[in-house]
Amino acid sequence: xxxxxxxxxxxxxxxxxxxxxxxxxxxxxxxxxxxxxxxxxxxxxxxxxxxxxxxxxxxxxxxxxxxxxxxxxxxxxxxxxxxxxxxxxxxxxxxxxxxxxxxxxxxxxxxxxxxxxx
Length: 118
Known about the structure:
The protein is mainly alpha-helical. It contains six helices and two strands.
């Protein structure tokens, strides 16, 4: 998303939180980039949902915390790409926000340590 924003705006070095902040401040290009990225990811997740049939898509990480445009576009695209039986697939934001990756890594490390112990 940052690369696309930089390409289209000519402004290099804008971070993802920066793009989100620009969108929140009314930058139409930032909003368009976040919307397009959300729709693209939602389409991909809809296809993946067809293969695995989940009951819930849980979004985590920093970008979903403040990027409503991104999340709304993602949630709208999933049912368009999924089979009709998944039309009621829930899309929710996780509660860990920017800590999701760190917490996930800690849980994985603990699980690995527990299986390695005799």
